Each structure stands twice: as structure tokens, then as C-alpha cells.
Amino acid sequence: MLQEASSDAQGLVSVSTIGNEGRYLYFACKRCMDIVLGSLLLVIALPLMLLIAILIKLDSPGPVIFIQERVGARRGSKGGRTIWEVRNFAFYKFRTMVQDADPSIHQAILKAWVEGRAEPSDAGGIKFKPTSDPRVTRVGRILRRTSLDELPQLVNVLRGEMSVVGPRPDLPYSVEGYKPWHHERLAALPGMTGLWQANGRCRVSFDDMVRMDIEYVRNQSLWLDLKILFLTIPAVLSGRGAA
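^ thats the sequence. predicted structure below, dont judge the formating
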């Protein structure tokens, strides 16, 4: 079982482990699954991705792909412990907002959510988050509702920056507001989907999301990864909790 993680000034999140041999085998199998599943999904989704790219270009001026800096982690070992080196990477999504949209609105909302000042809504999203954001394009609303805007992250998976399953990579200004215990969620390769996505997404508080991620970090297994993948399918199809 994993113990509580700690973070130092060098951006390392260290987690003491028991049974490293089994863990290393799991990580190797997980990487193989990411390559196989990521490649397969990318090939299957390619025609749809090309259609989405055309629709985005027809709907509004600007690039098709939105590249954003996110916080992830890279696994290593030191003194018999698993060490997760926290670092930023380029995160890919289909653009769902107008070009050069003002990020200050999202920053304020996310900061309030991390600090516990924003309550989740039963209908999905955050209670004081605007229901009709003028920055979001017509095509963008559909992409967000169906989570199709996340498809370009398959490239992040194949590059080894993300996994198909894992805690979602956070934004740098969000991580800056973390409480000490929040950092344990960074002790895993970030993923396209996880317990949070399968169990409600924006319908839960930030602390509850972190608890789900920590539960995943401490109990990672191929069986859990497969279970999360299957649970994600109905969550995406229903659109529940999609922001």
C-alpha cells in the first residue's frame, strides 16, 4: 500500500512503497496498455477528429488545437522509494473557446473551487459558474458536453506524458493553491479519465475529487484501470457532470 506523499522544493512527490517488484511490473504493463489502447483509439477516432477540426475552422477563426500548460509527474526511484517528479507539459485539446479568450474568469472560478468557496451543482458544473459562457463557441459547447474535445490527448498518452487512466493533470495556478495533503494526487501519471470522471466530475467538491485521486494512487492496478475505463463510458454518454 502507498503511504502519504510529501512534496519538496525541487518539485518531487515521494511515496514510500511496499512490494516494489509488483509495482514495477504494473507500471510496465500499464505503459504497454497505454501504447496499444492509445494507438487503437487514435486510429479509430481519426476520421471523427478530422471532421471536428473542419467544424471548428468553419465555426470560428483560430487554431483547431488548443495547447495549454498542465502539471503532471514522471516516475523514478530513489533510496527504495518511488519518486514522482512534478513537471509541466504541453497538454492538447480541441479548441472550444473563441481565439485569445480571457482566462481570468476560469482562473477565478478554479481558485474558488480549490479553496472550497465554490459549491458543486447537482446539474453539473459549479454553482456560480456562468451557464452561458460567451467565450465558448457553438461547436465548443457540443465538444465539451460529449468530452470529444479531449481526443487530442491521445497524443499525450503515446508520448508518455499521460496515461489513459489516472488523475487529471491540473493547471499550474491551481496547483499553487493546493493544501499539503492535496499533493498526493500528483503521485501518478496523469490520465485522460479517472475515478473523478467516472463518478461525477464537476458534481463533487475539489476535496472530494482529490480524495478519489488519492484512492486511485494508493490502489493502482490493471483491474482498477479497466474498471474505470468501463465506468467512464456511461458517464461520457450521459454527459453528467460535464463542465
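The first strand starts at residue 6 and ends at 7.
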